[in-house]
Amino acid sequence: MSELNLILLGPPGAGKGTQAERLREDFTLPHISTGDMLRAEVTQGSDLGREAKRYMDAGDLVPDEVIISMIIKRVEGPDAAEGFLLDGFPRNEQQADALAEALTGLGRRLSAALLIEVGDDELVRRLAGRRVCVKNPSHIYHVEFDPPKHEDVCDQDGSRLIQRDDDKEETIRRRLQVYHSQTEPLIDYYDRAGQLRRFDGTRDPDEVHARIRATVAALRLEEKL
Ligand code: AP5
């Protein structure tokens, strides 16, 4: 069986969610977004959601013990048996080690870490102008770069568009700091393992998508050989 076990890596606002939505359809993979899972817990008002919200609003990482078990359970689940697209996990070396260990335990391995690269100034512009669907957060827009047809209305389901709580300028700056100090070292981690693939995220979303899709299609072919 050919599996595609993929990670989308990159700073906040690089376009991980935007690309995941397209790749999910191309390759029929479950899109596992830690951010979306945590925001769903916040909306439900669960204990986990209340605990996570403090960290998310500050732009900090939610503690590993909360995240790791949540994601590993998901990766071991039946819909991820033929592969997955992880978005927002891992975010530090402990999380990366936990994922590698879980995959080894299942007799599986990571196919690739897909890195989307964008500079900080552009990321701030993207996050400050981002709007998401209140009903389905994977419907993502930008007031300037990808506006909906009708202001503040989702093209896909007609729901209201909102700004995420952590898309305020001071929280965005903090998220970028956290990315550079805690997540960026994973670029080296996956490069050393020969699993890193780099993409220029400053290009048009369709072009970024075409390049990632071609790489993933080649990986799938290699897995089948
Ligand atoms: P999370 O939800 O994962 O946020 P993030 O990593 O900060 O990433 P974003 O969702 O902000 O950006 P994206 O790369 O998906 O960009 P998008 O496609 O939306 O995490 C939120 C919080 O949860 C964290 O701060 C942390 O507290 C917690 N958390 C999550 N995972 C965790 C973990 N593993 N451990 C601990 N804590 C965790 O695009 C952004 C904008 O740009 C959009 O408006 C889009 O339309 C536009 N855009 C996209 N591509 C392009 C392009 N090519 N050109 C122009 N505009 C574009």
Structural summary, described in words:
It is a single chain. The chain is of the alpha/beta class and 225 residues long. It has one domain: P-loop containing nucleotide triphosphate hydrolases (Rossmann fold). Helix content is 50%, strand content 15%. The chain has nine helices and eight strands. A five-stranded parallel β-sheet has the order 2-3-1-4-8, with helices on both faces. Strands 6-5-7 form a three-stranded antiparallel β-sheet. A hairpin with a 6-residue loop joins strand 5 and strand 6 (140-142). Helix 1 packs across helix 9, helix 4 (64-75) runs parallel beside helix 5 (93-105) and helix 6 (120-128) packs across helix 7. The radius of gyration is 17 Å and the shape is globular. It starts with a strand and ends with a helix. The mean pLDDT is 95. The structure holds BIS(adenosine)-5'-pentaphosphate (AP5). BIS(adenosine)-5'-pentaphosphate (AP5) binds next to helix 1, helix 2, helix 3, helix 6 and strand 6.
Which descriptors apply to this entry?
about 220 residues, alpha/beta, Rossmann fold, five-stranded parallel beta sheet, three-stranded antiparallel beta sheet, 9 helices, globular, binds BIS(adenosine)-5'-pentaphosphate
Task: Please sum up the structure shown.
By secondary structure, the chain is an alpha/beta fold.
List the quaternary state of the chains.
Answer: single chain
Low-confidence stretches: none
End-to-end distance, in Å?
Answer: 11 Å
According to CATH, the fold-level topology is Rossmann fold
Number of domains: 1
Computed CA radius of gyration, to the nearest angstrom = 17 Å
Name given to the CATH homologous superfamily: P-loop containing nucleotide triphosphate hydrolases
Largest sheet, in brief, is:
5 strands, parallel
Total number of strands: 8
Task: Please tell me what the overall shape is.
Answer: globular
What is the number of helices?
9
